[in-house]
Specification:
Thioredoxin_ResA/DsbE_sf; 7 helices; about 170 residues; alpha/beta; Glutaredoxin; Thioredoxin-like_sf; Thiol-disulfide isomerase/thioredoxin; disordered N terminus; two-stranded antiparallel ribbon; isomerase activity; globular; Thioredoxin_domain
Length: about 170
Amino acid sequence: MKKLVLIFALSIFGLGYSQDVPKVLKTGFSKEALSQKLEDEEGKSITIKQILDQHKGKVLVIDFWAGWCRDCLKALPKAKELEENNKNIDFVFLSLDRSKEGFEKSLERFEMKDKENYWFASGWKNDFNNYVDLNWIPRYMVIDQKSGIAKYYAISPEDPEIQTTIDKLLK
């Protein structure tokens, strides 16, 4: 009976990640997604389009994370390693912390202050996250030099397709 209960519990709560791979791997952003607003560390509003425009001409990795997310924190050392091994590309960190205070504390606590960070003040459910099928974090996307999506879906910074995509874009 105990084995049956354990199997049932594991089937409900899953083992590790419970992300569902999106059915359509998008290669661009909708107008609504691009107009989604975030806040920078100073509380200044910025759109996804403005962020992408700042990185046009460069390969960009977007890292969705939060300080309360155990899986994100486990992935953080490997995310930092990916960044360290790719100094010639840009990284942007999009926080899903639940409050401005939580965002600020996470940046301090996890030594993220020296990185480019933004926070979804609107919360998890918004035009951008809905468009990119964000159903779990961490999540990683690779954006090409023209602001197109080169790698739509990765749940770990160790996903070999991230590095392969980066290498192809830099050729």
